Amino acid sequence: DVVRGGLACPVCRAGYPIVDRVAWFAPPDVGADLPAPLAPSSLTAEALRTFLDLQGGGGYVLLVGSAGRFGADLAALLPQSAVVCVSRSSSRPDTGPVSVLHSPRVLPVRRHTVRAAVVGADAVHGAWLDAAVAALLTGLRVIVEDQAAAPAGVVELARGAGVFVGEKRTR
Questions:
Q1: pLDDT digit string (tens) for 64-122?
Q2: What is the rounded distance in angstroms from the CA atom of residue 69 to the CA atom of residue 27?
Q3: Entry pTM
Q4: Exposed site from 53, 90, 107, 110, fewest CB < 10 Å?
């Protein structure tokens, strides 16, 4: 939980500030041209916990875009896992005690590093869904707030009521 500081890439030497517990991968005004979010589903943090079916503790749960609204509640339900929200807009989601990354253009998370991913309705299109699946470890689950979603490398487990649930099968 870093309140103020910075992150730096050891390869390209790019630096990113952390201000009020939010890591800024772009200036606040860069996200002004984001598309309007789609209508969110009726998901709850309890439903997410059930769909994700995480066994044991540890690792990271990634919430992308509007799915960040579940941050505080999901963190309370999964106390042994860290919750990371990637916000596409410059407004900080009410996430409570979770990590927040502001990045309107790309998902700043390494491939094959998260135990679960939830992609909000506003981040389904473009490269966001593919990047969230790439960040997910093989054999673990992704939830997408779009029942029409068909992410590559993911086997469908459930679909309906505005939600897709799948398991990553390929690297």
A1: 988 988 998 999 999 999 998 887 665 555 556 788 888 877 888 889 999 999 999 88
A2: 22
A3: 0.80
A4: 110
> Helices in the chain by DSSP H: which ranges?
45-52, 71-77, 128-135
Rounded Cα distance between 114 and 112, Å, is 6
H helix runs in 27-165, sequence order: 45-52, 71-77, 128-135
Residue of 117, 114, 90 lying closest to 20 (CA atoms)? 90
The size of the chain, in residues, is: 171
Do residues 60 and 82 touch, judged by C-beta distance below 8 A? yes
CA distance 124 to 102: 17
Cα–Cα separations (whole angstroms), residue 96 to 5, 70, 71, 99, 165: 19, 10, 7, 9, 25
Q: Residue 23 is encoded by which pair of tokens?
A: 């890591």
In whole angstroms, give the CA distance from residue 160 to residue 151.
15
pLDDT tens string 39-56: 556 789 999 999 999 988
Q: Which residue shows structure tokens 């509640």?
A: 73
